Amino acid sequence: MLGSRSTLESDLIHLAALRPVPIPSHSPARKHQPIWDRAVTRSMKKSTFLTAALISLAPVTAMAHPHIFVEARLEVVAAPDGSIQELRNVWRFDEVFSSSVVMDFDKNTDLKLEPNELAEVGKTVRESLSDYDYYMNLTIDGKNVTVQKPDIIHVDYKEGQLLMFFAVKPTEKMPLKGKLTFGVYDPTLYTSIDFPTDKELATVGDGFKNCKHDVLRPDADQVISQNKQSLTDAFFNDPTGTNMSKLFATKLEVSC
């Protein structure tokens, strides 16, 4: 069973460590390839269950439904200059996927993940999700904004579930003006990222005091009804669903 909201909130004690030092304003070009594929090729050749799961992320329409389940929290932090400073993330993975990660990274076979093994998980995810912007989806007045690589992805393993903590910064300045949206979702639909309550999508900082916040949770039936033709076209033109899946994603909308 996934953690409750209170459990997710308790995980936030780890966020104190998430204060990235400045990193180059560069984000690699997004490539349409299986998630984590590059990391699998370079550093996971000996893994078993997880390797098979990651390889199966190849775009196959019949598999366009979640296989990995995540409960998440997102904190959007305002900088003193009235722009977006960073986005802090907490991800709690389901027990089945978490156990598969233990199987793959438990090098000393003691059925738990030591600090060095947890660090290896973080390095693998940091490298492999860069082409997908770490599932971050940001817009300002309708314009997409990518994110920089996080300095580090902190990983923990508690009560049978894998936890990840990391912060990312936009690749360009995002002033708190107009309409901004913040979402976290997998465009391939392989990973389901859920926010248990609206409070799990939060803003931090005085820069938001004059802004209106709304959590948007699209109704799937309504989305389908309103976008029948475009969804049909997308099925044939974009079988991975990477363009249309965003219609179903939960987002934080900020109007300033």
Strand content: 25-35%
Mean pLDDT level: 78
Radius of gyration: 18 Å
Flag low-confidence runs.
Answer: 1-6, 13-63
Number of strand elements: 11
* End-to-end C-alpha gap: 38 Å
| Overall structural domain count | 1
- Major beta-sheet overview: 6 strands, mixed
Specify the overall morphology.
Answer: globular
Structural class: alpha+beta
InterPro entries: DUF1007 (IPR010412), UCP008159_ABC (IPR016537)
Protein name: ABC-type uncharacterized transport system substrate-binding protein
Pfam families: DUF1007
Protein described:
Pfam families: DUF1007. This is ABC-type uncharacterized transport system substrate-binding protein. This protein has 256 residues and is of the alpha+beta class. It is 25% helix and 26% strand. The chain has helices at 5-11, 37-43, 49-55, 95-105, 115-128, 220-226, 228-237, and strands at residues 68-78, 84-93, 136-140, 143-145, 154-158, 161-168, 179-184, 191-194, 201-204, 212-216, 251-255. β3 (136-140) and β4 form a beta hairpin. α2 packs across α5. The longest helix has 14 residues, at 115-128. It starts with a helix and ends with a strand.
What are the main properties of this structure?
single chain, 256 residues, alpha+beta, 6-stranded mixed sheet, 5-stranded antiparallel sheet, 7 helices, 11 strands, disordered N terminus, DUF1007, ABC-type uncharacterized transport system substrate-binding protein, UCP008159_ABC
Helices, strands, pairings?
Elements: H1 5-11, H2 37-43, H3 49-55, E1 68-78, E2 84-93, H4 95-105, H5 115-128, E3 136-140, E4 143-145, E5 154-158, E6 161-168, E7 179-184, E8 191-194, E9 201-204, E10 212-216, H6 220-226, H7 228-237, E11 251-255
Parallel strand pairs: 1-8, 1-9
Antiparallel strand pairs: 1-2, 2-6, 3-4, 3-7, 5-6, 7-11, 10-11
Pfam families: DUF1007 (PF06226)
InterPro entries: DUF1007, UCP008159_ABC
Protein name: ABC-type uncharacterized transport system substrate-binding protein
